[in-house]
Amino acid sequence: MASLRQPLSSLLTVLLLICTEFVHCNTNKRATDGQDADFSVPLEHSFEMDDVPRFRRRGSLEVRGGRENGVSISQGQLSEEDRNMLKEVASVDGLYRIRVPRVSLQADRQSERQIDGYLTAFVRACALVESHLSDVITLHSDVAGSLIGVSIVTIPGACRGVEVEDEVDLDVFNTTLSIMAPVTAPVPETALFIEKMEQEMERKGKNPQEQKSFFGKYWMYIVPLVLFLMMSGAQDQSGGGASGGAANGGSR
Amino acid sequence: MSALVCRVVAFFCLLRASAAVFEDQVGKFDWRQQFVGNVRFAAFDAHSQASKKLLVATEKNIFASVNSRTGELFWRHVDKTGQDGQIDAMLVHGQDAVLVVGNGRLLRSWETNIGGLNWEVVMDTGSFQTAQLIGLADIVKFVAVLKKSAISLHYLSNGHQKWVENLPDSDTVQYQTVYSSGNGDVFVLGLVPHSHIVVVAYNIEDGEIMKQVSVEAPWITSLDSSCAVVGSAVLLCVDPVSSSLYTLQLNAEGRAEFVHIPLQSLDLEAEAGFHPVVIATQPHPARVPLKEFFLQLGPERFILLQLKDGAIAPLRDFNPANLVAFATTGEKTVAAVMSPKNETACSINLFSADTGRRLLDTTVTYNLDPNGGKLNRLFVLAFLKKDDSVGYRALVQTEDFALTFLQQPGRVVWVREEALADVVTMEMVDLPLTGTQAELEGEFGKKADGLLAMVLKRLSSQLILLQAWIGHLWKLFYDARKPRSHVKNEVTIETLARDEFNLQKMMVMVTASGKLFGIDSKSGTILWKHYLQNVQPNAAFKLMVQRTTAHFPHPPQCTLLIKDKDTGLGSLHVFNPIFGKKSHIALPTLPRPIQQSLLLPIMDQDYTKVLMLIDDQYKVTAFPSTKNVLQQLQEMASSIFFYLVDSSQGTLSGFRLRKDLSTELMWEVVIPAEVQKITLVKGKRANEHVHSQGRVMGDRSVLYKYLNPNLLAVVTESTDTHPERSFIGVFLIDGVTGRIIHEAVQRKARGPVHLVHSENWVVYEYWNTKSRRNEFSVLEQYEGTELYNSSVFSSLDRPHPPQVLQQSYIFPSPINTLEATLTEKGITSRHLLVGLPSGAILSLPKMFLDPRRPEVVSEQSREENLIPYAPEMPIRTEWFINYNQTVSRVKGIYTAPSGLESTCLVVAYGLDIYQTRVFPSKQFDVLKDDYDYMLISSVLLGLFFATMISKRLAEVKLLNRAWR
What we know:
The complex is a heterodimer of chains A (252) and B (964). Helices cover 42% and strands 25% of the residues of chain A. Chain A has 252 residues and is an alpha+beta fold. In chain A, a hairpin with a 5-residue loop joins strand 6 (134-141) and strand 7. Chain B has 964 residues and is mainly beta. Chain B is built from 6 helices and 62 strands. In chain B, strand 23 (292-298) and strand 24 (301-308) form a beta hairpin. Chains A and B meet through strand 5, strand 6, strand 7, strand 9 and helix 5 of A and strand 46, strand 51, strand 52 and strand 56 of B. Chain A: It is a single-pass type I membrane protein. Chain A: Residues 1-25 form the signal peptide. Chain A: Component of the ER membrane protein complex (EMC). Chain A: Pfam families: ECM10. Chain A: It is found in: Endoplasmic reticulum membrane.
């Protein structure tokens, strides 16, 4: 527990430092380019045989505040001890958990909110081992820019029971990190539709031929055709029987 | 030209989607029942002997007229819900019924024959106290409305105000009662608790205060139930503390004072802890009240007393008696008393009001329903028979909101179950198999006992089946000869059996009052009812089917979880959904508030699905908790996940079961509650089947659906309600891993949000604050053109996030509720069932809510049959599945699959209940009603004979040719 508290307090001091710095810069200009608003958030992980989470530091997420939220990760190698532990946990189908503190990604909110809890996620330890520590971590933020959730998946995600040579593969994390902010849901597309309708109306206006109905346009072909069919149909009544008889005679 | 083509395409799509009911199909497979809710005021229309109207005003703000011969509604007026439409008082005089609505805001007069509005007046604001009909010289002309600080008199004929007067000292005095005996004075009685009574007499003509006296009464607390005006203007009050009666002459000259009459002097005594009640009657508003009155001294003790020359004399002591009521016909007033007869029955008797003598031949026996509630109120309609004796009919209201109408000598004319006006949740359960089917099923269930025995058994059961089939054929033949109207099968609980296509089911309905109903879905007949006595009025219910009918000989089993909203404590009610009988299974004790409940797919040896209950300390209780179940739970523990939602904190947390039945926190998502609040969390239905894994696109490639059974749709609403800044958030969260699959914000939008989550789509409806309209939005998730793992879905092994497509549409109406159709195998296309406030239920093809609808029509989209995008969603009247059978205040729609793939059973409930079937892809597996069997069989036969004859002819011809 002591090892846990130490990075936490250091983080707090870091945050405070950023805050003071930020307040200073805020008096001068809006921090939109975000160079000054960088800060780091600890990323912690836990994998235990008894499945009781004991979080240790895995690395830190460097968040670039400002308009476009960028994030990068700096993390060390897994120690020999950790590697063995992870393999053991994987062999009993244990879990690998991560957590990040609930913070706001909008740097100007830092001063307002303290860390009041963590967001946790998990993946099966065997999946992490079999994917050779290649994981995808996504941080989710809400409209106001505060973190609301974290997710971790490994690629591939399945546990097939493949042997992994620890020396080569379980050394460094191959992490893909991204931030997901909410997308704006679409509203009904009225403008485009109206435009389309107008275009159609215009085209119709230009070409008066189009306005006529099918029958109106082609009546001169249809009427003779119908007449012809009627006439021929009347003739068929007598001629058909005769031809039928002829056909019969032919087959004989 | 392309526009024409696309319009033609759209037309054919519509043509295919539209499915209206033909005129001759009306009522064939649908029914509607109309309700009014718990009755607050009831009055018999007694102005003519032949009248059969019963006027009721209810807690649901409904004013209706009930046919007292059949129990059906003549007419019904549904007012606004809530305080605005609340009916405060109902006064009936002759053909007119005067209602005070909305805490004294409106005064309305209705014509009771056809339910037309005579007049309506808007009154001054002020909290309503009471209303009273006022007569003058034997004619009822006015209605007086007493408010907190004013009294007004209105003409009964047109509602015009005659006068309005402020009440003196209305800030200290609580005015509660109006009294008039038709002699030109209107008395208003008020009180200052524990101090004095104020009597103000107004002149009926101009509202001038004639007299104002204040009488010392340090014992008084309320006028409402403990005081009444008896005889000629004598106020009679009962004081429970000193156990005595007080009388006051209202129109006395000079100084008025209460006369004190101790109850002991009448040899009476109030039961300890009971507040005595005075029940008096004024048969005609323009005449003095009756001298006789009831005094209730205990829950089951009433005494009929008479006030004569200032002295009180007991006429008759009714002990025990449940309910009493006065009724007047002509000049006679009678008292009806209901007293318990034995454990299961009560009897109602009439007594002459002025003597207390029992009238002969007036006993009505009322059988108490063992599954019903306690008696609540009694209304009596008295009438004079030809021989001048008094006859009567009685209406009994019970605690479970049921109305029973009784006739001499105890025949129940009708029963109205008004609890059904407030259905909270429901399930549909398959009916059991018939005896013969069960016999066949039972054969497989039993242990093998030798080859020969098995063969014999099989033969015998086949024989029974054959016999049943022949019997069925005979019945068909027999029925076919009779005219159709005669063939009417009465549904009773004994004749219940599953039909060929499982179209008839048992509807188990749970109502807010705690009464459960079993209703036959085909006819709407109530087959059983069960009233849960000690359910809090604000309890939450969750109904689960633990064992279906499929596991003969084990009876089906439903479990109702009742959760008290205040304490969170839960209790279980386990019953058989077919017969409604309470099961005698030992129930688990639930000492802690319940947080979450889930029905696991794990089954016990007797095929009961396991119900898991999680309390506020995250402890798990399994029901049933046999050894077998616990063992299975231990084995499955690592794959049992559940989630909890705390909307006040904005946290969603996932848990997993451990082997020792404790739980561990797996993930946590926190949506800050100060910005947005979680309002809705919805998963998918467990009994849903998806037939096709993907959609074939125009270029013949397949777009695979993202079918995650663990997906939750979470809706949040912003705490900022400003129209420019308000938004709703839609999150798709995996319930196992807590992974946020999709996160979208609908800006400038506001709830209430209605949402349907099914297959790979989510449809929701919201209010657009900018454009001020309702909008639909659809979200669909696709895995892409390749499937990650086609054999099985696991939330733990699906690393790639799905593609999410979204599109929005304008919907030209607000909606009340939203549900999707459900079919057996999921082959039939889906429709959305939209309950509109107008009472219509719209069956909207899901095809219109498809985010792949193209804005620009292309060859491929045409190939795929996609309708070109149009921002406005149409509402076509032929899509209303309930044609003119509107469902008032529709609150929920329940859908259930039937045995036919094309058919989905639908029940819409609210104030009314409507049951029907819908065929989203038309009846592709059913022959039409008007299918011409004669034609096809005659054509077939004709062809058969034609081939026979032509074959013969050909033979002859061949023979002839051979001879040539």
